Amino acid sequence: MATVNNPMRERLLEAAAELFYARGLRAVSVDKVIEKARTTKVTFYRHFKSKDDLIVAYLEVRATLERDGVDAAIAHGGGDVAATLGLIAEAVGGLACTPGFRGCPFINAAAEYPDADSAVRRTVDAHRHWYRTAFERLLAPLGLADPASAGDDLMLIRDGAMVGGYLDEPAAIAASFLRSAKAVVGL
């Protein structure tokens, strides 16, 4: 993936992010992204080989944002697991309350791309693996006997919060996430 800032590439990614998240990955055509970005097919294909490449790039941008947020919470918590879980809960709850929230873009992508060998699913799986290891890093100060299982449990709670934030009352998500996460790790 290109690491140099490219205004047209960024414009295509912004257009795709808005459309993909609001309407779904498969429902949005390359033509719709091109139209929203106010560019041409030639320009699109200069930056992305295919729609799947655009989807992967979109997911990678979303992954970076989530990773930066979780890493910042862990750093800010300074080893205080309860405080860090509180920060993550606030972020999850705040996200669920934003207008147009449709749940986790990674869960949504996995639902639309069931083939585990597709580039889209590999990107989803890589992000989910990162999240589990981040939860294990967060839990390290507790000295749990099985931090990997606790990380899996926190991942499940996070997934549930993302789905619940879309389907249920978003305002209750942060408190529910925090209660559940603390119960898993014995806080």
UniProtKB/TrEMBL annotation:
<dbReference type="GO" id="GO:0000976">
    <property type="term" value="F:transcription cis-regulatory region binding"/>
</dbReference>
<dbReference type="InterPro" id="IPR036271">
    <property type="entry name" value="Tet_transcr_reg_TetR-rel_C_sf"/>
</dbReference>
<dbReference type="GO" id="GO:0003700">
    <property type="term" value="F:DNA-binding transcription factor activity"/>
</dbReference>
<dbReference type="Pfam" id="PF00440">
    <property type="entry name" value="TetR_N"/>
</dbReference>
<keyword id="KW-0238">DNA-binding</keyword>
<dbReference type="InterPro" id="IPR001647">
    <property type="entry name" value="HTH_TetR"/>
</dbReference>
<dbReference type="InterPro" id="IPR009057">
    <property type="entry name" value="Homeodomain-like_sf"/>
</dbReference>
<feature type="domain" description="HTH tetR-type">
    <location>
        <begin position="6"/>
        <end position="66"/>
    </location>
</feature>
<feature type="DNA-binding region" description="H-T-H motif">
    <location>
        <begin position="29"/>
        <end position="48"/>
    </location>
</feature>
<dbReference type="InterPro" id="IPR050109">
    <property type="entry name" value="HTH-type_TetR-like_transc_reg"/>
</dbReference>
<protein>
    <submittedName>
        <fullName>Transcriptional regulator, TetR family</fullName>
    </submittedName>
</protein>
